[in-house]
């Protein structure tokens, strides 16, 4: 699957918080269910449930850093 790559960079929660604060947040993809997403999510995140990720991967800009959580 497209997200299984070797040497995938990892961003810590602190690094993500800093990026958000400094207005340089990556694309943030919440892979939980739509219900869970609507209950709470990171500001600016989009919801693509994990089971839909393969079919919807073209919605993501491959040139921009992306965080999946």
Q: What's the short story on this structure?
A:
The chain has 69 residues and is an alpha/beta fold.
Q: Mean pLDDT, nearest integer?
A: 91
What's the CATH H-level superfamily name of one domain?
Rhodanese-like domain
**Percentage of residues in DSSP E strands:** 5-15%
Q: What distance lies between the first and last C-alpha atoms, to the nearest angstrom?
A: 17 Å
Number of helices: 3
Helix content: 25-40%
What is the CATH level 1 assignment of one domain?
Answer: Alpha Beta
What order do the helices and strands follow? HEHEHE
What is the strand tally? Answer: 3
Characterize the main sheet.
3 strands, parallel
Report Rg: 12 Å
CATH architecture assignment of one domain: 3-Layer(aba) Sandwich
Structural class: alpha/beta
Can you offer a commentary on this structure?
- The chain has a domain at 26-68: Oxidized Rhodanese, domain 1.
- It has three helices and three strands.
- The chain has helices spanning 13-21, 34-39, 53-56; strands spanning 27-30, 46-47, 66-68.
- The protein has a three-stranded parallel beta sheet, with no helix packed on it.
- The longest helix is centred in the N-terminal third of the chain and has 9 residues, at 13-21.
- The model has no long low-confidence stretch (mean pLDDT 91).
